[in-house]
Amino acid sequence: MSDPIVGIDLGTTNSVVSVCDASGQPRVIADERGTKIHPSVVSFHPNGSVIVGVEAKQRRVIDPRNTVYSSKRLIGRQFRSKEIQAAMSRVPYVIKEGANQQPTIVTRGGEFAVPEISAIILDHVRNVAKRSLGQDVSRAVVTVPASFTDAQRSATATAGAIAGITVVRVLNEPPAAALAYGHMRQLSRVIAVSDFGGGTFDVTILRLQDQVYEVLATAGDSFLGGDDVDEVLMHHMAEQFLASHRIDVRENEVGIMRLRAVAEQTKIELSRRTRAIVKVDEIAYGPGGAPLNLEVEISRDQLIERATPIIERSFAVCEEAMRLAQLTPAGIEDVVLVGGTTKIPYVRERVTRFFQRPPRTDVNPEEAVAVGAALQASALDRILSRRPVTRSPSSPGVPAVAPPTFEDAATSEKRTTSPMGAEVRPPQRPPTERPTARGAAVDRFEEPTTGVGATPIARITKPGAAAPPPIPSQKRTMVGVPVVTLPDESGVGDEVTRERLGTDTTRTDPTLNDPFAPSAQPTMTFAPGPPLGHGGPAGPAAVGSPLAMGGREQEPTLIGAQPPQVHPSQTPTVFGAQPPQVGPAQQPTLIGAMAGGAAFASPPRGAPTVIDVTPRSLGIGTVAGYCEELIRRNSRVPTEMQRMFATSRDKQQVVRIRVCQGESRRLDDNVILGDLVLEGLPARPRGETAIEVTFHLDANGILQVRARDPKTGQEQRASLDIVGAQSPAEVEAARERFAQLRR
After folding, report:
1. Concatenated DSSP letters for 526-553?
2. Can you say how many angstroms the Cα of residue 343 is from the centroid of all Cα atoms in its chain?
């Protein structure tokens, strides 16, 4: 491939795309209007077109039911999860339960799974890069919060496949920001990256040694961000209006969306000033249709008072990360802030107090993640261009249809002032009115400002001739394990029995011990430039508990009691090598391994190397609703764990195992990833059939499974059915849906 690999920060509020030039220097790519920060908003217009970015964000106040925002908070979650239920009470668009418990968004353009919305955003920023670079862009490093689960990471890769983008690496956002911070500095220190974005919060402790970025610990909350600050500020303004006019504006969809947009801008303004006067014209209508306006003065102290509970939640996460890293704040030498919410002065003050040092101010909090992704992409590109890569064919039964692209059409420069405009201004200043894009508010300030033009409408164009990337499968397999159709439930065992046929083994890449070895907006603007973004109940120990097998007690085994053992056949992991592509008919190799087991050569010394960890423990369900830990939290990735499973009934040919992520001993308190199904087992008496199952957590933090009969050495049929995931057929239907969209 000759096209470059770009870095994409797919954010909750905004998305950014970046690329490195031939010399390895990164730059953030702007569109034809000079905009670098693109709102992660998609709107389905009545004329059939799909609007993305700034103009889509403006449509939130005039067409809220068909304008999707903050979709990153929904991706990879099950419909019945508490996060989805909380989101449904906040957003104006309709979310319903789709196939396989996945949330589906209902719009006038049709019903879309969440990865489809993310795919539209990815395609939009890809086209920004394509126009700027003057060549096709089909590969990307896409960043995700460090706290994302396996399902959320897989859904992000699926979004790339729908958009026709090969996601060569799913990179955690804090290490990406660390790459941007350490670029060309040759640092040797321990740093903390605090990523407080619009929808998620993560903190990661890293040790930097020249170009080696070793993650010591990570913690996060994937439902905590600037959106929550906007929410409490919006409710404050609504209560003020209710007290004055006895009308609750929150009962009106358009009114509440206007108020929400104003709340976001007020938050941004109060990050610059100590007070702001908020005025929204015709927010509601009184007796006889008389228009009612909202005008309220809000101080920074009032914002802090309401946002403090939200902000304090982030420091509980910081304490957790420090505990996992076995460090105190005094051991942190630098603090890097990422995300628009870190621009709130009180957040910076609290960070200074917690870490006992002021944070760095020389890193752009909105661009750092994309820049780091581009640096990672550049390292990947150098490695992949110099070494052969084993590629797997696309999934069977899926025609090689080129994915459609979203291409921007020219729009008029004429701007009008909306009657639904709102105003946030500093007190006692002479106003000067400047109209903005349609649907926008009117900002009135004495000092000069620079407006951001509307992003053109994105329209579907005829697809090209390139074949789409492989579709991430709902049923994941590893080498030699084909995907099979699940049998009738009557043949599935209700529980599994684990037989100790030897010591359970954790495999960690041996090259990780060598640091130089290869490893695997709203419509109002207040300043020049683009808009600112802003364990379970106690129970019997699952670990080490005896499990019945064949009428006898199993000897307790304490996970992690023995030091990790390196599997002698595991090949070195090349940082930046192509990760395993998951598909029904693929035969992927381990990261960094070539066909035949040969390893890639080491990358150049100047290439950055990230040594990451898994943010959550990985476990399986056992008896009585408890779970047993397989891969411990904060373990280095990639890593492997083996377990021996045996049948619990006579002539049992199918074993079903629940796989989860989380720290609780109770299965239901963790995130259920799906079911691992072992099929085609010999029909023997219970306990006589033992299967060795290998759990492989790759460099993307995505779980793969493998199973074999240790007696015969033959591979057994196994599949991991992911709850809430899209099947290859559904992904292909999403591609066809793109092709059917019209202006």
Report:
1. -SSSSPPP------S-STT---EETTEE
2. 22
492-527: per-residue pLDDT in tens? 333 333 333 333 444 444 333 333 333 333 323 233
Would you tell me how many other CB atoms lie within 10 Å of the CB of residue 717? 16
CA distance 176 to 173: 5
Q: Which two tokens stand for residue 147?
A: 């706290």
Alpha helices in 220-287 (DSSP H): 226-245, 253-270
Six token digits for residue 452: 């951001």
Looking at residue 583, its pLDDT comes to 36
State the Cα–Cα distance between residues 336 and 174, nearest whole angstrom: 9
β-pair partners for 305: none
Q: How far apart are CA 53 and CA 453, in angstroms?
A: 11
φ and ψ of 649, to 5 deg: -135, 155
What is the number of structural domains in the chain?
1
**Helix or strand (DSSP H, E) at 144:** strand 139-144
State pLDDT tens for residues 38-47: 999 999 999 8
Is-contact 646 692, C-beta < 8 A? no
Among 286, 207, 253, which Cα is nearest to 60's? Answer: 253
Q: Answer yes or no: are the C-beta atoms of 54 and 29 closer than 8 Å.
A: no
3-state DSSP call for residue 260?
Answer: helix
What domain range is 612 assigned to?
475-520+535-724
Residue 639 covered by a domain: yes
Cα separation values, 407 from 55, 129, 173, 459, Å: 15, 12, 28, 5
DSSP 185: T
564/510 Cα distance (integer angstroms): 10
For the beta carbon of residue 558, count every other beta carbon within 10 angstroms. 10
Strands 166-172 and 139-144: parallel
Q: Hey, what are 579's tokens? A: 């990760």
Q: Among 415, 427, 425, 428, which residue's Cα sits nearest to residue 445?
A: 425
pLDDT confidence of residue 731: 87
Q: Does a structural domain hold residue 292?
A: no
| Partner residues linked to 113 by β-bridges | 104
Strand partners, 106: 94, 111
Q: How far apart are CA 200 and CA 601, in angstroms?
A: 37
User: Measured between alpha carbons, how far is 534 from 342 in angstroms, rounded to an integer?
Assistant: 7
* Phi/psi at 99 (5° precision): -65, 145
Higher pLDDT, 742 or 656: 656
Judge whether 680 lies within some domain.
yes
CATH code: domain of residue 613: 2.60.34.10
Q: Is residue 44 part of a domain?
A: no
d(CA 173, CA 178): 9
Sign of the CA dihedral running 602, 607, 613, 614: negative
Could you tell me how many residues make up the chain?
743
Pairing assessment for the beta strands 275-285 and 291-299 based on DSSP bridges: antiparallel
Angle, helices 300-325 vs 253-270, to 10°: value is: 80
Amino acid at 707: A
